[in-house]
């Protein structure tokens, strides 16, 4: 499977400027950032940042809210993740700086230098193949093949596996460490004032986007994923060199972004490797996540996630025959209750998402729903509340179930009931965007606080990005409202097509 590093500089630029790579959130099909990215690319073209500033002495880092932040719910409690839509002007300029001929060669050469034989990296951004629905689905498929399956294979050679990850990886990245990754820490510090060096250029752009802050990079784009990989590859090299110094050679590491699986035949060696890994990471402002760190001798079992082990041992409720998926349970309500109970044991899990996706596909095939639709709506709403990662697929299921109600009055009341339950998560932008998908055509539609929802509603005066630093010539006709394609919005609401929220085809 191709990664972005296999592309030429011109194809890499095109790749990063794709709408789904600019924003790797799953959003309704009628939301598309291509018009904005195309406009910026056309108007800015070969110009540099200094050429588009309103005041040459005032940089974007002097302004708040240059990027647009969308809150994502991580779990059923109080954990949130801010995803950022990078300011399109800064995004384009940074992509352009990284994907000219010389810069792209520098990046590719640096990744070659930082590559470590004993460390297998499975998270370089992937290029969508013919069989993939998206770049995201390509990455998930690659994870299954090169993390889970590779771990099972390595169980034959190694006795121990140490599992850990970095706490708040993107939020912890020290922007100056990007330059360290390109030049080495000491050289980068000595050349910090050299504005033309690529590492320093990326460092400055990260600060422009975040009110001058040097802690953290914006999360939510493939470009940010790629920049994080540069820093993490530098950490890989530092760890490898430290282990060579300590004469530790019998080990193998699989890294998927900030997740590590370390294999060895010596418990003492694996504990030393873990210590040196933490030492190197702490020098880059990273900390290991104690809650997700453990050592195991049962490599086969622990290579497979707990939810998958439980589902395999309990017996699947869905089976595939030719191009038909059928259930071992007797009706939809039993399927829903099984999924509900599974969600309580393994919230936010991959198998839960797969079960919900399969149910959604089966629901589309059924002309009639056995049992009370309201009961199914209640069950699936509760699943979403305890497993926020599932709510997009749950809302697709709910939109289909709501369509089975016979009157507008019933549909309106059910939607309001669902909305009130979701109010447990106030001001969570991603949830509002998907809720709007099923409420848009209702009379007296619900009002949302998320700015993207306001753009979909064509409310005036919305500014997703603070562009006060941009010369009026370049922002006068900035097509912000075109991120919503009206005819697609009108065609696809209120039922959410399962293909909008599913990474993979079930059939």
Using the CA coordinates, give the radius of gyration.
24 Å
What structural class results from the helix and strand content?
alpha+beta
- Biggest beta sheet attributes: 5 strands, mixed
Tell me the strand percentage band. 5-15%
Strand line-up in the sheet with most strands: 3-5-6-4-7
Proportion of helical residues: 40-55%
The end-to-end distance, rounded to whole angstroms, is 22 Å
- Figure out the total of helices: 25
What is the β-strand count?
Answer: 9
Q: Name the average pLDDT.
A: 91
Give the overall shape.
globular
Poorly predicted residue ranges: none
Written overview of the protein:
There is one protein chain. The chain has 507 residues and is α+β, with helices and mostly antiparallel strands. It is 51% helix and 9% strand. The protein contains 25 helices and nine strands. The strands form three sheets. Strands 3-5-6-4-7 form a five-stranded mixed sheet, with helices on both faces. A hairpin with a 2-residue loop joins strand 5 (251-256) and strand 6 (259-264).
């Amino acid at each position: 499977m191709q990664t972005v590093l296999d592309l030429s500089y011109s194809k890499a630029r095109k790749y990063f400027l794709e709408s789904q790579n600019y924003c790797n959130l799953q959003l309704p099909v009628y939301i598309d950032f291509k018009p904005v990215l195309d406009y910026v690319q056309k108007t800015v073209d070969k110009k540099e940042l200094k050429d588009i500033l309103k005041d040459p002495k005032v940089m974007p880092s002097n302004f708040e809210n240059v990027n647009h932040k969308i809150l994502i719910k991580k779990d059923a409690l109080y954990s949130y993740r801010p995803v950022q839509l990078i300011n399109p002007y800064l995004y384009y300029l940074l992509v352009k700086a990284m994907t000219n001929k010389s810069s792209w060669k520098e990046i590719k050469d640096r990744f070659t230098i930082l590559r470590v034989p004993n460390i297998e990296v499975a998270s370089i951004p992937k290029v969508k193949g013919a069989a993939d629905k998206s770049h995201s689905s390509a990455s998930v498929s690659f994870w299954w093949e090169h993390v889970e399956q590779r771990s099972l294979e390595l169980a034959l050679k190694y006795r121990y596996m140490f599992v850990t990850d970095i706490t708040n990886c993107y939020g912890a990245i020290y922007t100056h460490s990007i330059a360290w990754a390109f030049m080495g820490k000491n050289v980068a510090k000595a050349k910090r004032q050299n504005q033309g060096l690529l590492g320093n250029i990326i460092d400055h752009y990260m600060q422009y986007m975040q009110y001058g802050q040097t802690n953290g990079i914006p999360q939510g784009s493939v470009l940010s994923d790629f920049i994080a990989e540069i820093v993490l590859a530098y950490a890989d090299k530092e760890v490898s060199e430290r282990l060579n110094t300590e004469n530790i050679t019998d080990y193998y590491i699989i890294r998927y972004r900030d997740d590590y699986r370390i294999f060895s035949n010596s418990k003492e060696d694996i504990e030393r490797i873990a210590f040196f890994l933490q030492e190197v990471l702490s020098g880059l402002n990273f900390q290991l996540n104690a809650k997700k760190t453990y050592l195991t001798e049962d490599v086969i079992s622990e290579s497979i996630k707990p939810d998958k082990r439980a589902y395999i041992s309990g017996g699947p409720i869905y089976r595939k025959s030719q191009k038909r998926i059928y259930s071992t349970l007797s009706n939809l309500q039993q399927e829903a209750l099984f999924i509900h109970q599974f969600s309580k044991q393994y919230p936010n899990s991959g198998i839960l998402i797969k079960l919900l996706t399969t149910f959604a596909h089966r629901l589309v095939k059924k002309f009639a729903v056995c049992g009370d639709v309201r009961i199914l709506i209640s069950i699936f709403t509760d699943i979403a509340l305890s497993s926020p990662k599932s709510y997009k697929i749950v809302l697709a299921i709910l939109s289909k179930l709501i369509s089975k109600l016979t009157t507008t009055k019933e549909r309106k009341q059910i939607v309001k009931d669902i909305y009130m339950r979701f109010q447990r998560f106030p001001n969570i932008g991603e949830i509002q965007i998907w809720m709007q998908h099923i409420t848009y055509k209702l009379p007296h539609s619900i009002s949302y606080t998320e700015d993207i929802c306001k753009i979909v509603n064509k409310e005036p005066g919305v500014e997703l990005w603070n562009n006060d630093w941009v010369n009026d010539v370049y922002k006068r006709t900035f097509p912000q409202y075109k991120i919503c394609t009206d005819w697609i919005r009108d065609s696809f609401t209120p039922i959410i097509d399962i293909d909008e929220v599913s990474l993979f085809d079930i059939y």
